[in-house]
């Protein structure tokens, strides 16, 4: 499934200032293009990221699993708050 993320503020991790560009993600989950008004297939899923930061490739390792895994090893509380793959 091809996905286009539009209208977000992209932080690409290359020490460049953030910029407003579209991110085109291919069927394999890899970034195909980052450009203003990227040309995407008509059947692409479009995500409007207005007012959001887009951080391609960024993984947030900050968690509080140390306490949660002791009390609830299934990490159900974290799952209740949403999937990190969203």
In one word, what is the shape?
elongated
Strand content: 25-35%
From the 3D structure, determine the CATH topology of the domain at 3-58.
Answer: Urease, subunit C, domain 1
Give the count of helical stretches: 2
The biggest sheet amounts to: 4 strands, mixed
Walk across the major sheet and give the strand order: 5-4-1-6
Q: Residue share in helices?
A: 10-25%
| Number of β-strand runs | 7
Structural class: alpha/beta
Computed Rg: 16 Å
* Integer average pLDDT: 83
Low-confidence stretches: none
Task: Explain what you see.
It is a single chain. The protein has helices at 65-71, 76-80, and strands at residues 3-6, 9-10, 19-20, 22-25, 31-35, 45-48, 53-54. With 86 residues, the chain is an alpha/beta fold. Strand 2 (9-10) and strand 3 (19-20) form a beta hairpin. The chain is elongated and about 50 Å long. 10% of the residues are buried. The model has no long low-confidence stretch (mean pLDDT 83).
